[in-house]
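Team,

Forwarding the record for the chain on the shared tracking sheet. I've put the sequence and predicted structure together so nobody has to dig through attachments.
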Amino acid sequence: RCIAAERRALLDFKKGLTVVANHLVSWTSEEEECCNWIGVGCDNSTGHVVKLDLRRMFTTGEIGYSLLELKCLSHLDLSSNNFYKIPDFIGSLSELTYLDLSYNPFTGIIPHQLGNLSRLFYLD
């Protein structure tokens, strides 16, 4: 079962996005089981969100701080969207083993905080 604080964090994250074609239509406050939402994967035994796969959703907006509430997030795929900035806080998602930010029109510097991701084995 989805953890309430993580469900709220995902809804907060969605608020910062502009989503084309209702790709995140399942992400609603009425649907309590966030583990069934499009792009969300949970650990079956704990209910923690461990995977967020939003690739090719042609999403724009800001990668929001609420992702920090997903304490067990190990897989984050935001590839093929329209994000323009890699936020520094991404380096604080300490459980990440997989991070794909490819095919986004990023500008500016790559935050040095990405070097804090000691468990990371895939980065694109």
